């Protein structure tokens, strides 16, 4: 490559820094005649002022200047743009100064006086180096965009599930906090990871914690970190997960299980974007996208005084509700096929298949444990099936024996209970709304999640 740009290429912009006007003028004319776009700075102080706005492709600077040295210009240039090649010029070259320049990241160290063709050769090499670095960064960004666009989509083809995926794909590019709700086993962490994989934070960590699995003191230490000596057993400083997830995503599973004390501290993180480690007095800034999940009805928990309303509103910026598996039966065959294929791959054998009767059993079951229960049932069936075909006999008895029961019996009880009346009324509303639970919830004047919970308690949803 020569500095004379070919058609369609931008000519390299060079910032020339020296404290002698005559040198600046001669170098500016030389570089302009050779196809560069020269800019000049009279001394290091002026160079520091110009660098942030100009952002040159190459910096050519004298080392010894009365106000700011060339090494300081080099340091500032690398802060503004780590990839910018910096060429140092000096009339008093020493091995020590040359080594310092290389250690500071100089592209080249040239001694005055120099021949014009020598300097131009170095500048052209610097321009080629710069071009390759820019192209490399562009290629990496393109690869990352391609990886994000090809993030593995969670399995499912039912309309409720596709609605969830479309919402996740819409919110993923933002930094908004997301609250994922749904019953246990519906795939809340799967959706959280999908949102992370589609976000601009995909190159950084995705960390998660189950807030209901740890006692309060240990949970706070894991979330926020602690300093040495802050409690018995704190023998050294520990970084919390919020800090460890810097620039990435942090998934707080089962956030509804947290205590009021922990909720206050979580609220501070969301409001101030900082954490105070246990036992510390100074706050640490954090930049992690928060994705929370719960299987509880947090609005009901707020009414009971078990969950802070202000934290709920901070978390519930984007709400994603995952439907239970019994509301997306169309997904059962494709999920089963995926689990069996993965099992076959792990066992280094051809995947086993379900016969028609076994699939009918799976389709008829209500799946209170949702997708997790389906996966576990199929893992058991694979182990217990001697041939490549899975029959109902290999499925757990609770699945093969279960039969759907009506919400209410045709026989009217002699003394109906309040629950029986409520069940009968809910069934009547559902029938009138064609089985549409969202419209039924509106008619009943309750939240859809409350209706789902009631139906689950009655044994049918």
What does it look like?
This protein is an alpha/beta fold and 461 residues long. The chain folds into 4 domains: 13-141, Response regulator (Rossmann fold, 3-Layer(aba) Sandwich), CATH 3.40.50; 159-323, Rossmann fold; 326-401, Helicase, Ruva Protein, domain 3; 418-458, Arc Repressor Mutant, subunit A (Orthogonal Bundle), CATH 1.10.10. The protein is 48% helix and 13% strand. It has helices at 21-33, 44-54, 70-80, 95-104, 116-149, 159-171, 188-197, 216-224, 241-244, 260-272, 298-303, 309-315, 331-346, 356-364, 370-384, 397-401, 418-432, 437-444, 448-458, and strands at 13-18, 37-42, 58-62, 86-90, 108-111, 178-181, 206-210, 225-226, 238-239, 249-253, 274-275, 284-285, 289-294, 318-321, 353-354, 389-390. The strands form 5 sheets. Strands 2-1-3-4-5 form a 5-stranded parallel sheet, with helices on both faces. A 5-stranded parallel sheet has the order 7-10-13-6-14. A two-stranded antiparallel sheet has the order 8-9. A hairpin with an 8-residue loop joins strand 11 (274-275) and strand 12 (284-285). Helix 10 packs across helix 12 (309-315). The relative contact order is 0.07.
